[in-house]
Write a structure and sequence with these properties.
The protein is mainly alpha-helical. The protein contains 17 helices and no strands.
Length: 462
Protein backbone atom coordinates (compact mmCIF):
# COMPACT_ATOMS: atom_id res chain seq x y z
CA UNK A 1 0.00 0.00 0.00
CA UNK A 2 1.23 3.47 -0.89
CA UNK A 3 1.55 6.01 1.88
CA UNK A 4 -0.46 9.25 1.74
CA UNK A 5 2.63 11.13 0.57
CA UNK A 6 3.40 8.61 -2.18
CA UNK A 7 -0.19 8.64 -3.44
CA UNK A 8 -1.04 12.33 -3.28
CA UNK A 9 2.22 14.31 -3.16
CA UNK A 10 4.30 14.44 -6.32
CA UNK A 11 8.04 14.70 -6.86
CA UNK A 12 9.89 17.51 -8.64
CA UNK A 13 9.31 15.93 -12.05
CA UNK A 14 5.56 15.78 -11.43
CA UNK A 15 5.25 19.42 -10.38
CA UNK A 16 7.49 20.52 -13.24
CA UNK A 17 5.18 18.79 -15.72
CA UNK A 18 2.05 20.10 -13.97
CA UNK A 19 3.26 23.68 -13.77
CA UNK A 20 4.43 23.64 -17.40
CA UNK A 21 0.81 23.12 -18.39
CA UNK A 22 -1.05 24.85 -15.55
CA UNK A 23 0.98 28.02 -14.99
CA UNK A 24 0.46 29.53 -18.47
CA UNK A 25 -3.26 28.76 -18.21
CA UNK A 26 -3.34 30.16 -14.66
CA UNK A 27 -1.57 33.35 -15.76
CA UNK A 28 -3.94 33.77 -18.68
CA UNK A 29 -7.01 33.10 -16.54
CA UNK A 30 -5.66 35.28 -13.75
CA UNK A 31 -5.00 38.28 -15.97
CA UNK A 32 -8.26 37.73 -17.86
CA UNK A 33 -10.30 37.61 -14.67
CA UNK A 34 -8.42 40.50 -13.08
CA UNK A 35 -9.09 42.67 -16.11
CA UNK A 36 -12.70 41.42 -16.10
CA UNK A 37 -12.88 42.65 -12.52
CA UNK A 38 -11.56 46.06 -13.58
CA UNK A 39 -13.96 45.99 -16.53
CA UNK A 40 -16.81 45.18 -14.16
CA UNK A 41 -15.81 47.99 -11.81
CA UNK A 42 -15.66 50.45 -14.75
CA UNK A 43 -19.19 49.56 -15.80
CA UNK A 44 -20.19 49.55 -12.13
CA UNK A 45 -19.13 53.18 -11.87
CA UNK A 46 -21.92 54.07 -14.29
CA UNK A 47 -24.57 52.90 -11.85
CA UNK A 48 -26.56 49.90 -10.62
CA UNK A 49 -28.82 49.76 -13.70
CA UNK A 50 -25.93 49.77 -16.18
CA UNK A 51 -23.99 47.18 -14.21
CA UNK A 52 -27.03 44.94 -13.78
CA UNK A 53 -28.02 45.17 -17.47
CA UNK A 54 -24.52 44.16 -18.57
CA UNK A 55 -24.39 41.41 -15.92
CA UNK A 56 -27.65 39.87 -17.16
CA UNK A 57 -26.43 39.80 -20.77
CA UNK A 58 -23.13 38.29 -19.66
CA UNK A 59 -25.10 35.59 -17.87
CA UNK A 60 -26.79 34.79 -21.19
CA UNK A 61 -23.42 34.90 -22.96
CA UNK A 62 -22.11 32.46 -20.36
CA UNK A 63 -24.45 29.87 -21.85
CA UNK A 64 -22.82 30.45 -25.26
CA UNK A 65 -19.30 30.28 -23.83
CA UNK A 66 -19.97 26.97 -22.14
CA UNK A 67 -21.75 25.49 -25.16
CA UNK A 68 -18.65 26.34 -27.21
CA UNK A 69 -16.40 24.99 -24.46
CA UNK A 70 -18.42 21.79 -24.17
CA UNK A 71 -18.66 21.23 -27.90
CA UNK A 72 -14.98 21.85 -28.64
CA UNK A 73 -13.55 20.18 -25.56
CA UNK A 74 -15.74 17.11 -26.11
CA UNK A 75 -13.86 16.50 -29.35
CA UNK A 76 -10.69 17.69 -27.62
CA UNK A 77 -10.61 14.41 -25.68
CA UNK A 78 -9.67 12.80 -28.98
CA UNK A 79 -7.21 15.59 -29.86
CA UNK A 80 -5.22 15.04 -26.65
CA UNK A 81 -5.11 11.28 -27.17
CA UNK A 82 -4.25 11.60 -30.89
CA UNK A 83 -1.38 13.89 -29.88
CA UNK A 84 -0.30 11.36 -27.25
CA UNK A 85 0.09 8.68 -29.93
CA UNK A 86 1.53 11.03 -32.60
CA UNK A 87 -1.41 10.95 -35.04
CA UNK A 88 -1.38 14.30 -36.92
CA UNK A 89 -4.17 13.33 -39.29
CA UNK A 90 -6.39 12.45 -36.34
CA UNK A 91 -5.81 15.95 -34.91
CA UNK A 92 -6.76 17.48 -38.27
CA UNK A 93 -10.02 15.53 -38.29
CA UNK A 94 -10.91 16.78 -34.79
CA UNK A 95 -10.04 20.35 -35.86
CA UNK A 96 -12.40 20.20 -38.86
CA UNK A 97 -15.17 18.68 -36.79
CA UNK A 98 -14.71 21.50 -34.27
CA UNK A 99 -15.01 24.05 -37.08
CA UNK A 100 -18.43 22.84 -38.16
CA UNK A 101 -19.61 22.42 -34.59
CA UNK A 102 -18.51 25.96 -33.68
CA UNK A 103 -20.31 27.44 -36.69
CA UNK A 104 -23.54 25.62 -35.82
CA UNK A 105 -23.43 26.57 -32.12
CA UNK A 106 -22.60 30.23 -32.84
CA UNK A 107 -25.34 30.53 -35.47
CA UNK A 108 -28.04 29.02 -33.26
CA UNK A 109 -27.15 31.09 -30.18
CA UNK A 110 -26.89 34.31 -32.22
CA UNK A 111 -30.32 33.70 -33.75
CA UNK A 112 -31.90 33.02 -30.34
CA UNK A 113 -30.40 36.16 -28.80
CA UNK A 114 -31.39 38.34 -31.76
CA UNK A 115 -34.98 37.09 -31.74
CA UNK A 116 -35.62 36.68 -28.02
CA UNK A 117 -32.91 38.77 -26.30
CA UNK A 118 -35.34 41.29 -24.81
CA UNK A 119 -37.55 38.57 -23.34
CA UNK A 120 -34.58 36.68 -21.90
CA UNK A 121 -33.23 39.82 -20.20
CA UNK A 122 -36.70 40.54 -18.87
CA UNK A 123 -36.75 37.20 -17.03
CA UNK A 124 -34.24 38.66 -14.57
CA UNK A 125 -36.25 41.83 -13.96
CA UNK A 126 -39.43 40.48 -12.38
CA UNK A 127 -38.44 41.13 -8.79
CA UNK A 128 -38.48 44.36 -6.81
CA UNK A 129 -36.44 47.27 -8.13
CA UNK A 130 -34.97 48.13 -4.71
CA UNK A 131 -34.96 51.77 -5.75
CA UNK A 132 -33.45 50.97 -9.15
CA UNK A 133 -35.06 51.41 -12.56
CA UNK A 134 -35.98 48.07 -14.14
CA UNK A 135 -36.85 49.65 -17.51
CA UNK A 136 -33.48 51.38 -17.65
CA UNK A 137 -31.76 48.10 -16.75
CA UNK A 138 -33.54 46.41 -19.66
CA UNK A 139 -32.54 49.22 -22.03
CA UNK A 140 -28.85 49.02 -21.05
CA UNK A 141 -28.92 45.26 -21.38
CA UNK A 142 -30.31 45.49 -24.92
CA UNK A 143 -27.68 48.08 -25.88
CA UNK A 144 -24.89 45.83 -24.69
CA UNK A 145 -26.32 42.70 -26.33
CA UNK A 146 -26.68 44.21 -29.81
CA UNK A 147 -22.97 45.03 -29.93
CA UNK A 148 -21.55 41.98 -28.16
CA UNK A 149 -23.04 39.67 -30.79
CA UNK A 150 -20.46 41.03 -33.26
CA UNK A 151 -17.73 39.04 -31.52
CA UNK A 152 -19.18 35.61 -32.36
CA UNK A 153 -17.05 34.94 -35.51
CA UNK A 154 -13.83 35.81 -33.65
CA UNK A 155 -14.86 33.77 -30.63
CA UNK A 156 -15.62 30.74 -32.81
CA UNK A 157 -12.36 30.74 -34.83
CA UNK A 158 -10.19 31.82 -31.90
CA UNK A 159 -11.41 29.02 -29.66
CA UNK A 160 -10.97 26.51 -32.48
CA UNK A 161 -7.23 27.21 -32.54
CA UNK A 162 -6.78 27.87 -28.82
CA UNK A 163 -8.35 24.59 -27.71
CA UNK A 164 -6.36 22.59 -30.26
CA UNK A 165 -3.07 24.17 -29.18
CA UNK A 166 -3.79 23.49 -25.50
CA UNK A 167 -4.82 19.90 -26.11
CA UNK A 168 -1.50 19.37 -27.89
CA UNK A 169 0.41 20.77 -24.90
CA UNK A 170 1.04 24.29 -26.27
CA UNK A 171 -0.35 26.54 -23.55
CA UNK A 172 2.07 29.48 -23.82
CA UNK A 173 0.72 30.93 -27.09
CA UNK A 174 -2.94 30.97 -25.98
CA UNK A 175 -1.71 32.62 -22.77
CA UNK A 176 0.05 35.40 -24.70
CA UNK A 177 -2.96 35.91 -26.96
CA UNK A 178 -5.27 36.05 -23.96
CA UNK A 179 -3.08 38.51 -22.08
CA UNK A 180 -2.84 40.85 -25.07
CA UNK A 181 -6.59 40.60 -25.60
CA UNK A 182 -7.51 41.50 -22.03
CA UNK A 183 -5.28 44.57 -22.08
CA UNK A 184 -6.89 45.65 -25.35
CA UNK A 185 -10.24 45.16 -23.65
CA UNK A 186 -9.20 47.16 -20.60
CA UNK A 187 -7.70 50.02 -22.61
CA UNK A 188 -10.68 50.46 -24.90
CA UNK A 189 -13.06 50.11 -21.98
CA UNK A 190 -11.47 53.18 -20.44
CA UNK A 191 -11.49 55.06 -23.74
CA UNK A 192 -15.01 54.18 -24.89
CA UNK A 193 -17.00 53.89 -21.65
CA UNK A 194 -15.92 57.31 -20.38
CA UNK A 195 -14.96 59.04 -23.67
CA UNK A 196 -11.27 59.68 -22.91
CA UNK A 197 -8.60 61.15 -25.25
CA UNK A 198 -11.09 62.25 -27.89
CA UNK A 199 -13.02 58.98 -28.08
CA UNK A 200 -16.84 59.17 -27.83
CA UNK A 201 -18.45 58.49 -24.45
CA UNK A 202 -20.48 55.35 -25.17
CA UNK A 203 -21.21 53.81 -21.77
CA UNK A 204 -22.26 50.16 -21.94
CA UNK A 205 -21.99 50.17 -25.76
CA UNK A 206 -18.34 51.13 -25.35
CA UNK A 207 -17.79 48.19 -23.01
CA UNK A 208 -19.29 45.83 -25.59
CA UNK A 209 -17.15 47.23 -28.42
CA UNK A 210 -14.00 46.83 -26.33
CA UNK A 211 -14.86 43.20 -25.55
CA UNK A 212 -15.59 42.36 -29.20
CA UNK A 213 -12.40 44.06 -30.38
CA UNK A 214 -10.30 42.11 -27.88
CA UNK A 215 -11.69 38.81 -29.20
CA UNK A 216 -10.63 39.69 -32.74
CA UNK A 217 -7.11 40.55 -31.57
CA UNK A 218 -6.89 37.24 -29.68
CA UNK A 219 -8.05 35.34 -32.76
CA UNK A 220 -5.50 37.00 -35.05
CA UNK A 221 -2.63 36.17 -32.69
CA UNK A 222 -3.37 32.44 -32.35
CA UNK A 223 -4.24 31.95 -36.02
CA UNK A 224 -1.15 33.87 -37.14
CA UNK A 225 1.12 31.89 -34.82
CA UNK A 226 -0.33 28.56 -35.93
CA UNK A 227 0.20 29.44 -39.59
CA UNK A 228 3.77 30.64 -38.99
CA UNK A 229 4.72 27.48 -37.04
CA UNK A 230 2.96 24.87 -39.17
CA UNK A 231 6.31 23.27 -40.03
CA UNK A 232 7.08 22.48 -36.39
CA UNK A 233 3.46 21.90 -35.32
CA UNK A 234 2.84 19.68 -38.30
CA UNK A 235 -0.78 18.92 -37.50
CA UNK A 236 -1.59 22.42 -38.81
CA UNK A 237 -0.21 21.54 -42.25
CA UNK A 238 -3.08 21.27 -44.72
CA UNK A 239 -5.59 21.84 -41.95
CA UNK A 240 -8.02 23.55 -44.36
CA UNK A 241 -7.10 21.45 -47.39
CA UNK A 242 -10.55 20.01 -46.92
CA UNK A 243 -13.36 20.54 -44.41
CA UNK A 244 -14.59 17.00 -44.84
CA UNK A 245 -14.55 14.66 -41.85
CA UNK A 246 -14.89 10.88 -42.41
CA UNK A 247 -18.38 9.68 -41.55
CA UNK A 248 -17.06 6.97 -39.21
CA UNK A 249 -15.16 9.60 -37.21
CA UNK A 250 -18.13 11.98 -37.14
CA UNK A 251 -20.14 9.22 -35.52
CA UNK A 252 -17.33 8.48 -33.06
CA UNK A 253 -16.80 12.16 -32.17
CA UNK A 254 -20.55 12.75 -31.91
CA UNK A 255 -21.22 9.82 -29.58
CA UNK A 256 -18.42 10.83 -27.22
CA UNK A 257 -18.56 14.61 -27.56
CA UNK A 258 -22.28 15.37 -27.77
CA UNK A 259 -22.98 14.49 -24.11
CA UNK A 260 -20.35 17.07 -23.11
CA UNK A 261 -21.96 19.72 -25.33
CA UNK A 262 -25.38 18.92 -23.90
CA UNK A 263 -23.92 18.80 -20.41
CA UNK A 264 -22.25 22.21 -20.67
CA UNK A 265 -25.34 23.69 -22.30
CA UNK A 266 -27.66 22.37 -19.60
CA UNK A 267 -25.22 23.22 -16.81
CA UNK A 268 -24.83 26.82 -18.01
CA UNK A 269 -28.60 27.05 -18.45
CA UNK A 270 -28.88 25.76 -14.89
CA UNK A 271 -26.54 28.51 -13.67
CA UNK A 272 -28.68 31.04 -15.55
CA UNK A 273 -31.80 29.62 -13.87
CA UNK A 274 -30.12 29.81 -10.46
CA UNK A 275 -29.23 33.45 -11.09
CA UNK A 276 -32.80 34.11 -12.21
CA UNK A 277 -34.09 32.49 -9.02
CA UNK A 278 -31.95 34.77 -6.87
CA UNK A 279 -32.99 37.80 -8.98
CA UNK A 280 -36.55 37.40 -7.68
CA UNK A 281 -35.22 39.01 -4.48
CA UNK A 282 -34.61 42.29 -6.32
CA UNK A 283 -32.15 44.38 -8.30
CA UNK A 284 -29.74 44.63 -5.37
CA UNK A 285 -29.34 40.85 -5.45
CA UNK A 286 -28.67 40.96 -9.21
CA UNK A 287 -25.99 43.60 -8.63
CA UNK A 288 -24.55 41.83 -5.57
CA UNK A 289 -24.30 38.48 -7.29
CA UNK A 290 -22.65 40.07 -10.32
CA UNK A 291 -19.99 41.64 -8.10
CA UNK A 292 -19.35 38.41 -6.19
CA UNK A 293 -19.19 36.15 -9.25
CA UNK A 294 -16.67 38.44 -10.96
CA UNK A 295 -14.42 38.46 -7.89
CA UNK A 296 -14.92 34.73 -7.32
CA UNK A 297 -13.72 34.01 -10.88
CA UNK A 298 -10.45 35.74 -10.01
CA UNK A 299 -9.85 33.51 -7.01
CA UNK A 300 -11.01 30.32 -8.74
CA UNK A 301 -7.88 30.26 -10.89
CA UNK A 302 -6.43 28.29 -7.95
CA UNK A 303 -8.04 25.15 -9.35
CA UNK A 304 -9.55 25.91 -12.79
CA UNK A 305 -6.26 25.44 -14.65
CA UNK A 306 -5.70 22.13 -12.90
CA UNK A 307 -8.84 20.78 -14.54
CA UNK A 308 -7.26 21.67 -17.89
CA UNK A 309 -4.08 19.96 -16.72
CA UNK A 310 -6.04 16.77 -16.03
CA UNK A 311 -7.57 16.90 -19.52
CA UNK A 312 -4.19 17.47 -21.18
CA UNK A 313 -1.67 15.45 -19.12
CA UNK A 314 -3.89 12.55 -18.08
CA UNK A 315 -5.49 12.48 -21.53
CA UNK A 316 -2.07 12.08 -23.15
CA UNK A 317 -1.11 9.24 -20.77
CA UNK A 318 -4.38 7.49 -21.61
CA UNK A 319 -3.69 7.96 -25.31
CA UNK A 320 -0.25 6.38 -24.96
CA UNK A 321 -1.71 3.46 -22.98
CA UNK A 322 0.09 4.19 -19.69
CA UNK A 323 -2.85 3.65 -17.33
CA UNK A 324 -0.80 3.38 -14.14
CA UNK A 325 0.88 6.72 -14.81
CA UNK A 326 -2.49 8.27 -15.67
CA UNK A 327 -4.01 7.20 -12.34
CA UNK A 328 -0.99 8.27 -10.28
CA UNK A 329 -0.81 11.67 -11.97
CA UNK A 330 -4.56 12.21 -11.60
CA UNK A 331 -4.51 11.48 -7.85
CA UNK A 332 -1.75 14.02 -7.33
CA UNK A 333 -3.39 16.75 -9.44
CA UNK A 334 -6.69 16.37 -7.56
CA UNK A 335 -4.92 16.56 -4.20
CA UNK A 336 -2.92 19.61 -5.23
CA UNK A 337 -6.07 21.36 -6.51
CA UNK A 338 -7.87 20.85 -3.19
CA UNK A 339 -4.92 21.94 -1.04
CA UNK A 340 -4.07 25.02 -3.09
CA UNK A 341 -7.71 26.13 -3.30
CA UNK A 342 -8.07 25.80 0.49
CA UNK A 343 -5.23 28.27 0.99
CA UNK A 344 -6.69 30.70 -1.55
CA UNK A 345 -10.13 30.34 0.06
CA UNK A 346 -8.80 31.63 3.39
CA UNK A 347 -7.50 34.77 1.69
CA UNK A 348 -10.77 35.23 -0.19
CA UNK A 349 -12.91 34.89 2.95
CA UNK A 350 -11.09 37.60 4.90
CA UNK A 351 -10.85 40.03 1.97
CA UNK A 352 -14.51 39.55 0.92
CA UNK A 353 -15.75 42.86 2.43
CA UNK A 354 -13.10 44.91 0.59
CA UNK A 355 -13.92 44.36 -3.10
CA UNK A 356 -17.58 45.56 -3.18
CA UNK A 357 -16.43 48.97 -1.91
CA UNK A 358 -15.04 49.75 -5.38
CA UNK A 359 -18.52 49.73 -6.94
CA UNK A 360 -20.90 52.65 -7.34
CA UNK A 361 -23.97 50.82 -6.09
CA UNK A 362 -26.16 50.64 -3.00
CA UNK A 363 -24.92 49.61 0.44
CA UNK A 364 -27.36 46.71 0.41
CA UNK A 365 -25.93 45.38 -2.88
CA UNK A 366 -22.42 45.59 -1.40
CA UNK A 367 -23.53 43.70 1.72
CA UNK A 368 -25.17 40.98 -0.40
CA UNK A 369 -22.03 40.68 -2.51
CA UNK A 370 -19.92 40.20 0.63
CA UNK A 371 -22.25 37.43 1.81
CA UNK A 372 -22.03 35.61 -1.54
CA UNK A 373 -18.23 35.91 -1.52
CA UNK A 374 -17.88 34.44 1.96
CA UNK A 375 -20.00 31.45 0.98
CA UNK A 376 -17.97 30.98 -2.21
CA UNK A 377 -14.76 30.99 -0.19
CA UNK A 378 -16.06 28.34 2.21
CA UNK A 379 -17.09 25.99 -0.64
CA UNK A 380 -14.00 26.53 -2.84
CA UNK A 381 -12.21 23.25 -1.87
CA UNK A 382 -15.44 21.40 -2.64
CA UNK A 383 -15.57 23.06 -6.07
CA UNK A 384 -11.93 22.13 -6.69
CA UNK A 385 -12.69 18.47 -5.98
CA UNK A 386 -15.74 18.44 -8.25
CA UNK A 387 -13.91 20.28 -11.04
CA UNK A 388 -10.96 17.87 -11.16
CA UNK A 389 -13.19 14.79 -10.76
CA UNK A 390 -15.27 15.99 -13.72
CA UNK A 391 -12.21 16.40 -15.95
CA UNK A 392 -10.83 13.05 -14.81
CA UNK A 393 -13.96 11.16 -15.82
CA UNK A 394 -14.14 13.11 -19.08
CA UNK A 395 -10.49 12.44 -19.99
CA UNK A 396 -11.32 8.79 -20.63
CA UNK A 397 -14.34 9.58 -22.79
CA UNK A 398 -16.94 8.69 -20.13
CA UNK A 399 -19.10 11.62 -21.20
CA UNK A 400 -22.46 10.03 -20.41
CA UNK A 401 -21.34 9.71 -16.79
CA UNK A 402 -20.21 13.35 -16.69
CA UNK A 403 -23.58 14.36 -18.13
CA UNK A 404 -25.45 12.80 -15.19
CA UNK A 405 -22.76 13.84 -12.70
CA UNK A 406 -22.87 17.51 -13.70
CA UNK A 407 -25.87 18.96 -15.53
CA UNK A 408 -28.53 16.42 -14.57
CA UNK A 409 -27.72 17.02 -10.92
CA UNK A 410 -27.85 20.79 -11.55
CA UNK A 411 -31.28 20.66 -13.20
CA UNK A 412 -32.88 18.07 -10.92
CA UNK A 413 -31.40 19.14 -7.56
CA UNK A 414 -29.71 22.57 -7.46
CA UNK A 415 -32.26 24.56 -9.48
CA UNK A 416 -35.36 23.19 -7.65
CA UNK A 417 -33.69 23.82 -4.27
CA UNK A 418 -32.96 27.44 -5.24
CA UNK A 419 -36.48 27.88 -6.66
CA UNK A 420 -38.15 26.59 -3.49
CA UNK A 421 -36.05 28.55 -1.02
CA UNK A 422 -36.18 31.87 -2.93
CA UNK A 423 -39.95 31.74 -3.42
CA UNK A 424 -41.25 30.06 -0.28
CA UNK A 425 -38.90 31.30 2.44
CA UNK A 426 -37.65 34.69 3.59
CA UNK A 427 -34.03 33.54 3.91
CA UNK A 428 -31.43 35.99 2.62
CA UNK A 429 -30.09 35.23 -0.88
CA UNK A 430 -26.55 34.34 0.34
CA UNK A 431 -28.06 31.81 2.79
CA UNK A 432 -30.05 30.18 -0.02
CA UNK A 433 -26.85 30.19 -2.08
CA UNK A 434 -25.08 28.29 0.73
CA UNK A 435 -27.90 25.72 0.97
CA UNK A 436 -27.69 25.05 -2.78
CA UNK A 437 -23.94 24.45 -2.47
CA UNK A 438 -24.45 22.13 0.52
CA UNK A 439 -26.36 19.72 -1.71
CA UNK A 440 -23.19 19.40 -3.84
CA UNK A 441 -21.73 17.20 -1.10
CA UNK A 442 -23.75 14.39 -2.67
CA UNK A 443 -21.82 14.94 -5.91
CA UNK A 444 -18.52 14.91 -4.02
CA UNK A 445 -19.19 11.40 -2.72
CA UNK A 446 -20.20 10.19 -6.19
CA UNK A 447 -17.16 11.83 -7.81
CA UNK A 448 -14.69 10.25 -5.37
CA UNK A 449 -16.21 6.80 -5.93
CA UNK A 450 -16.07 7.12 -9.74
CA UNK A 451 -12.48 8.33 -9.77
CA UNK A 452 -11.34 5.64 -7.32
CA UNK A 453 -13.04 2.86 -9.32
CA UNK A 454 -11.12 3.93 -12.44
CA UNK A 455 -14.10 3.92 -14.80
CA UNK A 456 -12.36 6.70 -16.74
CA UNK A 457 -9.15 4.76 -17.49
CA UNK A 458 -9.67 4.12 -21.19
CA UNK A 459 -7.82 4.70 -24.47
CA UNK A 460 -10.43 5.88 -26.98
CA UNK A 461 -8.29 6.44 -30.10
CA UNK A 462 -6.70 3.02 -30.65
Amino acid sequence: MKTFREKFIGDKAFYKALFAVAIPITIQNGITNFVSLLDNIMVGQLGTEQMSGVAIVNQLMFVYYLCMFGGLSGVGIFTAQYFGCGDDEGIRHTFRYKFWLGVVISSIVAAVLLLFGENLIGLYLNGSSDGGDLEATLMYGEQYLKVILLMFPAMCIGQLYTTTLRECGETFVPMVAGVVAVFINLSFNYLLIYGKFGFPEMGVRGAAIATALSRYVEMLIVVGWAYAHRNTHTYFKGIFKTLRVPVALIKKFFITGMPILINEGLWSAGIAMLTQAYSIRGLNVVAGQNISSTINNLFNIAFIAQGDAVAIIVGQYLGSGDMEKARDTDNKIIAFAIMSSALVAILMFFTAPLFPRFYNTTDEAKLIATGFLMVQAIVMPKDALLHTCYFTIRAGGKTIITFFFDSVFMILVSVPVAYIFTRYTSLAAPIVFAIVHAFDLIKCVIGIILVKKGVWMKNIVS
